[in-house]
Amino acid sequence: MVVETVVVALWAMLPAYVPNNAAVLFGGGAPIDGGREWRGRRLLGDGKTWRGTAVGIAAGVALAIVLDAVQPAVSGATGFDIPGFPLAVGAALAAGAMLGDILASFLKRRTGRDRGAAFPGLDQLDFVVVSLLLVALVAPTWFRGVFLSEPLRLVVVLVATPLLHLVTNAGAYVLGLKDEPY
Residue 28, exposed/middle/buried by CB under 10 A (0-12, 13-18, 19+)? Predict the structure, then answer.
């Protein structure tokens, strides 16, 4: 039961876990805020770009499509009822991840933090919270079936995500893809 809860929770979040990584790897270009400021500070900063956002969402949606295709085989192999990913769910998870990261940048700028500055809690959960809210709005039946039918899955996501976030960011730092290890 515990293994099933963890596997299903993390599987369901995969399309939300990938977008920000794809944006780091393949982003760049024109910043979303166009250099504009509000109250003397950049709206978002140079790290939030149109290309990174588009690539991130596309990567999350593409992963959801692949996961949906292999879902029957994975369910059969694990013996668990692994959820599939209707297109709307994949899009909501991926777009929610990117939107969460953009909103976090906005909050960082409002609190005087520079690009890359740590904001514990927000850095690790911004994309998860917005992804879950967006998928709950766009696909409430899927959300209820996956997360509300087994609330411990939400706990797994909220506990495991910060750990995964720190490990992947440390890896990206070691590889020279990020300027900070958090």
Answer: middle
Domain span at residue 162?
A: 2-174
48 domain-assigned:
yes
Q: DSSP alpha helices (H): ranges in the chain?
A: 2-17, 19-26, 50-78, 87-110, 122-138, 140-143, 152-174
Q: Mean pLDDT, consecutive 10-residue segments, the chain of 182 residues?
A: 94 96 90 91 91 97 98 95 97 97 89 76 86 98 96 95 85 80 73
Q: Are 87 and 102 in contact (CB under 8 A)?
A: no
* Number of domains composing the chain: 1
> For the range 109-117, what are the long-range contacts, defined as Cβ-Cβ under 8 Å and sequence gap of 24 or more?
109/41, 109/42, 109/43, 109/44, 109/45, 110/39, 110/41, 112/41, 115/45, 115/46, 115/47, 116/47, 116/178, 116/179, 116/180
**Residues paired with 49 in a beta bridge:** 31
Is 180 domain-assigned? no
